[in-house]
Amino acid sequence: MIAGLRLGRRDLAQGIGGLWLLLACLTIAVAGLAAVTSLASAIGSTIDGQARELLGGDVALSVSQRQASEAELAAMRRLGTVRGSVTLRSTARLPGERTVLVDLSGIEPGWPAAGRITLASGRLPGSAGEAAVGRELAERYGLGIGSPVRIGYANLRVSGIVDELPAPSGFALSPPVLVSQAGLAASRLVQPGSLYTSSYRLALPPGADGAALGKAFQQRFPDGGWRVTDKGDAASGTRRFTDRTGQMLLLIALGALGIGSIGIASAASAFAASRRATIAILKVHGARQRDLLIMLGTSVALLAGLAILLGLAIGAVVPGVVGKAAADLLPVAPDPSPQWGALGRSALFGLLVTLAATWLPLARAARARPAAVLRGDVDEGGTRARDLIVPLLAAAGVVALAMLTSENRLTTGVTIVGALALAFLFAGAGWVIARLARAASGVGGPLTRLGLAALHRPGAATVRLSVALGLGLSLLVALSGVGASIRSELGENIPAKAPALFMLDIPAAEEARFRQLAAATAPGADLRLVPSLRGPVTALNGQPVSAMRAIPEGAWILRGDRGLTFARDLPVGNKVVAGGWWPRDYAGPPLVSIDMEAAKALNLKIGDTLTVAVLGVPIEARIASFRTIDWRSFGFNFAIIFAPGTLEQAPYTLMATIAPPRGTSTLRFERDLAEALPMVSTIRVSDVVTRVTAILEGLDGAIRIATLVAILIGVTVLAGAVAATRRARTRESVLLKLVGASRSDVLKAQGIEFAAMSGGIVLLAFAAGTIAAWLTVTRLFDFAFRPDWLILVALPLAGMLVAILTALGAAWPALRARPAAALRDL
């Protein structure tokens, strides 16, 4: 081993001999991987480190449409310090007759129990006539200290501008407004049936287990419908969004690393080819194969180590940069400090991929026969079975590490299998192209025959180039198709299909007045009303949800409060797929119909029972049917619908949608509604779409950057794979020049080679990427597949042009070789 290291040190004096490609591919790939994992880890680190402050306590207990009873409050106070708040959606009327949806919270003095509210200016509300508004609301509508705001029946003045405050869920689609409990009472928005949530933040003694105490509280009041959020669930919406986004970006980054492995293998092959003469001479003088392998591995290890360090350095600074650049889009600022765990995993990925990609070409070079090398043979010989042991173990390590570090192992596994299948598909396509080129060896003129012959000659990189180019272009086409379809849905389909306004908290007693107002101020509009309540699912077949160890993936109806309604007729956009819908005049024991996907996640069947707490009263109902729901109908789609005769006696409000004739404004209706029924909350669909679009555009930008990294690696791999065959191309160019070919003739022959190879791969990549995009859009998002076909077709064609130009650029040094100088070196 010592002899091998000495040889490696001396060998480095000859230069890196093609390992620049390894340096480039590995640096870019590790940088992308480290950036993605560091950003996800940094956001998670902030949530974990500030969980108590983000939650506003050690644990939060919340219940819908009622406040805690004296017994419940007494039980909370025995656990620790309690600070309560009541939150609901409301419409705020601003100067200039503008209205905006806000999250209104009436808070107790000293709220929250832990953490603090950060004010950009002013102070918290101290009287019934004051309100503190969110910074985004103040900046967007020009509000300042003293500005008037009307919410419900309360006339308020802005006392402060809120910069940050505890937000257990993370993302919010409407800005916050804080008032005192007296201010909330003055608004008269909290009425029987109103959709509000009472939350109680608890500061517990040191060492107390918030999750355990919260679960014990649920079990003590099993019919209360209480939801527990402990520090581990702080910013749960942000955490889920970050995990899923990070998972998607991680898979793209791993794909880029996989493409980079082809370049790393090409670099190792080029490096080994540059050392063929040295290896032959050393073997003649008695060097052992093991020492030669160590000699070659020393150079590769040093360059790989440098590439990994550079990649990690780039990835380490990404959380801080993103935190500054996207501060308004992220509800939680990423921790800017290095994420050592994420960086360590990225380094391990890089090491394993390098080992898997470089072992085989180095092992082949180390065992090359001196006689064959000195004769100038191009073929490196076959592969022995034992040479595959190390690469296969390293590749298995990459897959195992990806699975172990994944948030969704099923998705990761399917993606890895799909990527491998796609890689084999393009490898097979490359093999077919080489075979077809051999079969057509007598077709066309001399230049055409030379170009086609280059695709199947010994040492040709046709298969490697096909895989690198195919995977990169497939990814680019797929993401372009998915992004265009989502943007089309948000920008065109949703505004066209969705109603202009959603309205909440319409008192049931005011239904007639509401309908008269709509008819007078929005004539011809499509108006729909449905009863609305909220309540959590507390038990399934008699088993309390609080006693479940874990909520199954996809069982979202068990997470928090659910919207509830009752109906005689099957709603539009719903279809019964199991069981049956009840008669319009049903009058019997409680029945429910639930969403089919939720039923599958919970393994429910017709006849099972489901218990829902409504205003603290448990209602057990038998499941009568399962429904599929067309969520794109943009109507009132409830996962849980009760049969008539169960909820009518409970205090409830109405929800409504209004869709005016095309080209008609709803501003007059909104103004008159705010004046006549100020307790009604109005949600503009356009405002929600704008907010969601801003979040998705940020996500789309991140995906595009990750994709560009993959494409950059693909181009680098393409150039490197061509450069790796420089010795053979130089020899061919010199021989052609000796028999009278000009440089332009050789250039044309190589252009034909690259065009023939990339043309077939581009067609296959376009088909694979389009199919993947169609499946993602129609099956995962349930949207219509509406890509920009012009861009979708142009992308692979542009990729083909870039591939040809890149390959010709990489082959240019071989084309410039002078016969006399080249013959002395061959």
Automatic annotation (TrEMBL):
It is found in: Cell membrane. Its main location: membrane. InterPro entries: ABC3_permease_C (IPR003838), MacB_PCD (IPR025857), Membrane_comp_ABC_pdt (IPR038766). Residues 251-368, 705-816 form the ABC3 transporter permease C-terminal domain. The chain crosses the membrane at residues 12-36, 248-271, 292-322, 342-362, 388-406, 412-434, 465-486, 701-724, 754-777, 789-815. It is a multi-pass membrane protein. Residues 21-219 form the MacB-like periplasmic core domain. It holds the Pfam family MacB_PCD. Keywords: Cell membrane, Membrane, Transmembrane, Transmembrane helix. The keyword rRNA processing does not apply. PANTHER family: INNER MEMBRANE PROTEIN, MEMBRANE COMPONENT OF PREDICTED ABC SUPERFAMILY METABOLITE UPTAKE TRANSPORTER. This is ABC transporter permease. It comes from Sphingomonas rosea. The lineage of its organism: Bacteria, Pseudomonadati, Pseudomonadota, Alphaproteobacteria, Sphingomonadales.
